[in-house]
Amino acid sequence: MTLFPKGGLIVSCQARADNPLHGPVFMAAMAEAAEDGGAVALRVNGGEDIAAIKAVTHLPVIGILKMFDHDPVYITPTTAAVEYVAEAGADIIAYDATFRARSKGDDPAEVLKRIHDLGKLAFADISTFEEGLAAADAGADFVATTLAGYTAETAETRTIGPDLKLVEQLSSRLSIPVIAEGRYNTPELAASGLNAGAYAVVVGTMITNPREITRSFVQGLQQG
Ligand SMILES: CC(=O)N[C@H](C=O)[C@@H](O)[C@H](O)[C@H](O)COP(=O)(O)O
Fold first, then answer.
1. Does the C-beta of 184 come closer than 6 Å to ligand 1?
2. Membrane-spanning regions, if any (predicted)?
3. Is the pTM of this model over 0.90?
């Protein structure tokens, strides 16, 4: 069971507290725009935004709770976070499934179990091939390349664009859907994620973060 069709676009509607578009009113509008534009699912952070978005769209929501006080493992790092995201109405719950040591928070196996116990699908955010295999072995329903380039181990080898090689490696090995996520900043790159074998592609910044989109244009102009 996947809840959304193969080959589709998942739009991540997230805005941190320092972003002028922070808050459920703006995120719900983003979600409606994404649905109108043809997105097949949404990725959403926090209970308020998830509930607001579930009220205005029909799309399945991949919910997360970012807890930066649990850094470096901040994406839904506890079973309590899973309960909160489920309660808010998420259909699928994404969690950090990297091998990183956790000073706080729960073991990823416990987080995964809680997601399934609550009747939700588990979306494993990983940064390496080995983490992807381990997450699939553990019973995750999706494996996503979300954290490739964002962990201490992968920062040095971070690609400027998306990590297509990782998508290719995981897709040729796993039978569960592999989701391409992270730095798919153009429609062409998103298509290349599917060509690399991804089931679907998540795009965030370049659709729902006008401040970053503006910065990329300004930079383009400065570079002439
Ligand atoms: C690393 C991390 O925390 N990624 C987050 C996960 O929820 C989001 O900040 C990203 O926007 C999302 O993964 C989509 O990626 P991009 O914005 O590159 O299209």
1. yes
2. none
3. yes
Q: Ligand 1 pocket, 74 CB below 6 A?
A: no
* Cα–Cα dist 36/11, whole Å: 12
**d(Cα 157, Cα 152) in Å, to the nearest integer?**
10
Q: Residue 40: pLDDT above 90? A: yes
**Alpha-carbon distance 120 to 118, whole Å?**
6
Ligand 1 centroid to 9 CA: how many Å? 14
The domains found in the chain, sorted by start residue, are 9-223 (3.20.20.70)
pLDDT of residue 214: 98
The pLDDT confidence band at residue 2, using thresholds 50, 70 and 90, is: confident
**Prior bond of 72 cis (ω within 30°):** yes
- Assess whether the C-beta atom of 14 lies below 6 angstroms from ligand 1: yes
